[in-house]
Amino acid sequence: MAIVLYQEAFDNSSRFKRRIEDERWIAFAQAAWPQTTIHGADPLRRGVRSGGMRAKGHQYLDRHHRPEIDSFYHLSKASIAGRACQGTACFVARHLDPQRWHDAASQSPRVYCLGKCYAAPASTAEEARPAIEIRCRQGIVLNRIVAGGARTLEAYTRQGGYQALEQALGQPPEKLVQRIEISGLRGLGGAGFPAGRKWRSVLEAPASQKFVVANFDEGDPGAYVDRFLVEDDPHCLIEAMIIAAYTVGAQKGWIYIRNEYPQAEAILRAALAEARRERLLGDHVLNREFSFDLEIHVGRGSYVCGEESALLNSLEGKRPDVRARPPFPAQHGLWGFPTLVHNVETLANIPWIIQHGGEAFQRLGFSRSRGNKVVSLNSLFERPGLYEVEFGVPVRHIVEDLGGGLKTGTLKGVIIGGPLAGIVPPHLLDTPLGFEELHAIHASVGHGGVIAFDEHTSIPDLVHHIFSFGAYESCGKCTPCRLGGRRVEQIFQHILDRGSAAPTEETEWVEILSALRLTSLCGLGTGLAEFAETVRLYYAKELERCFA
Ligand SMILES: Cc1cc2nc3c(=O)[nH]c(=O)nc-3n(C[C@H](O)[C@H](O)[C@H](O)COP(=O)(O)O)c2cc1C
Ligand code: SF4
Asked: Which ligand is nearest to the CA of 194?
């Protein structure tokens, strides 16, 4: 039986279609339609789609909507309109609006993080904007945003946009990779992996196709920098992805965007249409030999889809389990091809580095953390908002000088880099903001969310909240994460209900933490253990009372 499959994507402004010869797609189609000739996708379907297929006499089959996979996603069918947020920034601010928190905590499915942590406890109706400031020697990613933003192509080019792309297209890829290597830029999505090493791996991987993926899932409660980078400066992400694709030799890219950011999605779609109209995307980018196009994929409410290998499975239309590594996405990514996956903020640094040189970037920051980081402060601060700071500033500067301390209450701790990271207690606030420096005190830079909490949040309350989040979002592949997370949530529920837990439960929780640390396949499981480790280290007295 001859099989001809086409993958296609189209929106109101363009349509592209390419023949698929990947044997996994063919196997998928054969399983779906045994004994049938398969001849491609229906070109008349409306909206943006990819990965769909139609066989003669059969209905269109969309690889992204299959019941057994839909059930993985919390927001597969649910609308988020009118919903309140249940993320950690909203949890620690629940005393500010108990009714809203009650609504958030009692809704199903849960909604974790609307990117409005500066106004927590937040709901989708919240329209306020945070403070956005550059508080360092040299602004990089917030420059256009503090000057009023650049949502249109005209505004972006007026402020120097796409000059970096022109510059990059005139240079050999090797030179561009060297520039990124010299800069010392590290991934700002959480792992802090050197960007230059990743670019070189993808560039040097021999393959017929390569891909670039922007991770715009921004799932860490407390983080909202990517949201504003895209809403206020969407072309910067597009320009960075075109430069990255040209450098590593990719023909196609995806932006994986979080479902909870509908405004960012609309802005990005409009910007992509503008870029295609001006031949910045599509065949022969700016009349060069190089062709590249970008597609948007909207997530459906799963935190673990921010983990890069789960994200790739999600893009492929598979159940988004985390993949075992090696091989890493740079060698074996989307459909097995070398794939460059980067966080939005990491990518936002690229045009600046291309224009100003790797050395200029390298001169900023300190130690092994070069350049700047945007931190996002939650609503308990006197001045919540987004601040671009240079790596190396003490955490105290962020908390006291930028945030202005807490609006009310006494600072009990700061959770930096999302709920799956260690707490920085008040006596360690002089630790510099740096990957290794925070790691040394069992904390992390993560994606730069800074959630302060005060005496309204007890330690058992916080542990219960974080493990409840972890258990809800676990992909389920590792037993300690799938079952252990839920068990710790139960133990702390007992503590909250009865005032303390049995000594056997203390042994159990310590054993679960050890299993999480040693056997988890991804940062969700190890992050739960890291968080708990700092609770045991820095809040031992309060914890002792839980197991009395
Ligand atoms: C559970 C989990 C969730 C994650 N969520 C995100 C996310 O929402 N956005 C992101 O950029 N990286 C996230 N990451 C990190 C990614 O796996 C990956 O390291 C990152 O996208 C690589 O880009 P970077 O090198 O630019 O940081 C997550 C990791 C884990 C373990
Ligand atoms: S640690 Fe948890 S989320 Fe990560 S792969 Fe294992 S089960 Fe999945």
From this structure: 1
Place of tokens 């990957």: 435
Question: For every residue of 250-292, which 3-state class applies, written as one string?
Answer: CCEEEEEECCCCHHHHHHHHHHHHHHHHCCCCECCHHHCCCCE
The better pLDDT of the pair 217, 418 is held by 217
Give 58's pLDDT tier (boundaries 50, 70, 90): low
* Residue 141 CB less than 6 A away from ligand 2: no
* Residue 305 Cα to ligand 2 middle (Å): 11
Contact 344, 214 (CB under 8 A): yes
Contacts of 442 (CB under 8 A, 6+ apart): 422, 530, 533, 534, 537
Burial class (CB in 10 A: 0-12, 13-18, 19+), 172: exposed
Gap between the terminal Cα atoms of the chain = 70
Residues 6+ apart with CB under 8 A from 154: none
pLDDT tens readout for residues 133-156 = 999 999 999 999 999 999 999 999
pLDDT band at 31 (very low <50, low <70, confident <90, very high): low
Element (H, E) at 134: strand 131-134
pTM of the model: 0.90
Q: Are 40 and 74 spatial neighbours (Cβ–Cβ below 8 Å)?
A: no
339 lines ligand 2 (CB under 6 A): no
94's tokens: 């629940």
What ligand has the least distance to the C-alpha of 481? 2
Instruction: Give dist(CA 451, CA 399) in Å, integer.
Output: 10
Domains, in order of start, for the chain: 5-63 (no CATH), 131-362 (3.40.50.11540), 365-454 (3.10.20.600), 459-546 (1.20.1440.230)
Pocket of ligand 2 contains residue 468 by CB under 6 Å: no
Tracing tokens 């597009």 back to the chain, one arrives at 238
SS (H, E, C) 211-248: EEEEEECCCCCCCCHHHHHHHHCHHHHHHHHHHHHHHH
- Which run of H or of E encompasses 463? helix 459-473
Judge contact between 49 and 9, C-beta under 8 A. Answer: yes
Q: Is residue 111 predicted with pLDDT exceeding 80? A: yes
Q: Phi then psi for 16, rounded to 5 degrees?
A: -135, 150
